[in-house]
């Protein structure tokens, strides 16, 4: 049974895309996991797509005439000749890497035009869940990288997910973004009263351990989490310049050049905890 997890926070720049891509790598190629992972890029800024495949290959994907996540949200609109342009998951999903142990990463890429769909009052949030249902047997894990702003894409992510993972940078502005997520979840559950939303947990990202502000923010997050019954991951992800460097090199943290072992180990601990919590 595949599990679908959305990485979400209504605050930008907290590490949603970085963690999506690094989790996909770790859980597909690390000996203990070797899982089949699909990354769904649900952000019009397409960071996860570019991080996973690099700039050149990304534009090959966008220009090859095959559908992307944008087409998924446009497929219900009829073409002038009345034909429906239903997106086939086989066309839209691209293979990124296969590992000898059986693990792999596939990608449903995003493109900037997805932002045009957000202006369209007829888009349907359930289209993503419907598409993923057709391929869920082929994967152990589906990771959805969300955009930081509330839109039909947020509803689409909620409808498609078994769990939500909330990365939080322990700093003031990040903390005040969390109530927006609470509002978003509450609004969703009011509209879709047959659905549930399960929070896998909050994970602290970009921790240094030194600043009093960090401790203060963690206390605020812990208070809010306790109020809503949210778990906080035992493992924390440290601040490391290897994350942006890895994005440039197209590598996960554990393959980034000159990465410090301690930093890579911290991520591995988090990824292992994530895998266990999801039940992979
Ligand atoms: N643990 C970390 N240590 C250092 N830099 C990090 C860490 N995690 C993420 N970053 C960097 O922070 C920036 C923002 O990260 P990322 O793009 O993953 O956030 P995001 O939540 O996906 O942002 P957005 O809301 O814009 O989609 C990137 O430059 C990334 O390389
Ligand atoms: Mg992002």
From TrEMBL:
List the CDD domains hit by this protein, alphabetically: ParAB_family
Looking up Pfam families in the UniProt record yields: AAA_31
Which parts of the sequence belong to the AAA domain? 3-190
* Transmembrane segment boundaries: none
Gene3D superfamilies given in the database record: P-loop containing nucleotide triphosphate hydrolases (3.40.50.300)
The family database entries (PANTHER family) matched by this protein are listed as: COBYRINIC ACID AC-DIAMIDE SYNTHASE (PTHR13696:SF99), P-LOOP CONTAINING NUCLEOSIDE TRIPHOSPHATE HYDROLASE (PTHR13696)
| Name recorded for this polypeptide | AAA domain-containing protein
Species per Swiss-Prot/TrEMBL record = Pseudoalteromonas porphyrae
Taxonomic classification:
Bacteria, Pseudomonadati, Pseudomonadota, Gammaproteobacteria, Alteromonadales
């Amino acid at each position: 049974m595949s599990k679908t997890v959305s990485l979400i926070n209504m605050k930008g720049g907290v590490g949603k895309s970085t963690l999506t891509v690094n989790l996909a790598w770790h859980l597909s190629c690390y000996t203990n996991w070797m899982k089949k992972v699909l990354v769904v890029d649900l952000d019009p800024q397409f960071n996860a797509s570019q991080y996973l495949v690099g700039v050149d290959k990304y534009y090959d994907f966008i220009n090859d005439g095959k559908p992307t996540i944008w087409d998924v949200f446009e497929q219900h609109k009829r073409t002038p000749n009345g034909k429906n342009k239903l997106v086939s998951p086989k066309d839209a999903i691209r293979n990124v890497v296969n590992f000898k142990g059986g693990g792999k990463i596939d990608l449903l890429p995003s493109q900037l035009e997805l932002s045009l769909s957000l202006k369209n009052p007829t888009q349907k949030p359930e289209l993503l869940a419907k598409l993923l249902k057709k391929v869920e047997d082929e994967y152990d894990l589906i990771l959805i990288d969300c955009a930081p702003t509330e839109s039909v894409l947020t509803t689409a992510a909620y409808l498609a997910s078994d769990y939500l993972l909330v990365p939080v940078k322990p700093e003031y502005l990040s903390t005040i973004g969390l109530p927006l997520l609470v509002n978003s979840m509450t609004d969703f559950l009011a509209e879709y009263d047959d659905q549930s939303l399960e929070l896998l947990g909050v994970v602290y990202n970009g921790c240094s351990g030194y600043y009093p502000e960090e401790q203060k923010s963690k206390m605020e997050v812990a208070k809010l989490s306790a109020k809503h019954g949210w778990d906080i991951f035992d493992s924390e992800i440290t601040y490391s310049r290897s994350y942006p460097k890895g994005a440039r090199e197209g590598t996960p943290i554990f393959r980034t050049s000159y990465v410090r072992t301690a930093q890579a180990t911290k991520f591995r601990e988090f990824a292992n905890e994530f895998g266990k919590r999801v039940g992979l």
